From TrEMBL:
Sequence similarity: Belongs to the CobD/CbiB family.
Organism: Falsiporphyromonas endometrii
Lineage: Bacteria, Pseudomonadati, Bacteroidota, Bacteroidia, Bacteroidales
This protein's name: Cobalamin biosynthesis protein CobD
UniProt cross-references to Pfam families, sorted A to Z: CobD_Cbib
Topology of this chain in the membrane: Multi-pass membrane protein
Transmembrane portions of the chain: 6-22, 62-84, 90-112, 169-189, 235-256, 328-345
Amino acid sequence: MFDADISYFTVPIVCFAFAWILDRIFGDPISLPHLVVGYGKLISFWEKRANRTSSEAHVKRIHGALMGFVLTYGVLLVTIAIIYSAYSTIPILGVAISIILIFYCLAGTSLIREVKQVFKAVDLSVDAGRAQVARIVGRDTSQLSPQEIRIAALETLAENLNDGVIAPIFYFFGGVLLGLLLHLVYPLATEVLPLSLGVGLMTAFKMVNTLDSMVAYKNDRYIDYGRYSAIQDDIWGYIPARITAIMLLLSAKALGNWSFVKRFGRAHLSPNSGYPEAAMASLLNCRFGGPHNYFGKEVYKPYIGINERLVDTKDCNKSIHFAQRAEFLSILTFIVIAFIVWLSVMSL
């Protein structure tokens, strides 16, 4: 398809560009089978058979860790093998598979669409807003006020900008960079290596995130079984969450807000979620956090920010603008870094 040296860099970028454009046009393909839905079914199938209520706590932890480890790194290896084999046999087939998988791992358009729908719904009625926001949060929404509904949507936008957009992009380009560096150490490595590693890490992260969203709850059923998945998600999300916060601040030319982000980001119950949420709260000059109801249990999340003002559709539009700019800045930054590394590798 391309000159061998050039293709190490260009093939992954072209695949990503096509997938990103597809996401911008279509969002999540509701009428088609979805990779993450498949992940969910696989996790549910395994968990129902391994997470027995009669098992002791340490046994549940072992079984949960086994599931989390095997599914995460199994996805990584299987993805690499599929793309490597397909590309080595029919390059255009490997490219097509890669584009589809990258497309499934990006959720920027669908996230923005869902947040907009929440604000539209709550403007019609509280009940409509509660029903709509229930689609994107994992808490009880039946008693939320209009203000709480809007804040929940903005929190979700900030958190999932990391989980569903920037973190997958980070791992894709991280895999590409790893492939380029491996070529430096082992020059005979095939040109598909950066692409397969990039897509492999991206799909593995989506499995990590799906595991966290399904089994990492602190209730009787999952407190032990989901412990590994929760820790794994914290580790994989550590760097991307901070990159997301920085990119949000850059999107508004507000790097001076970093002290605010550090102060409130560290206070969050999650070691990661607080950073993009704090960045967004600083840009909107509002307050996130407070008590939330999860499965009948009230969980108090420390407040992020101090301005307890009412938010409205203008804030929704601002937050979406910041999120889209942060996504674009992240992609541009990662491409530039990959290009620099590629030039360095090729010059040696």
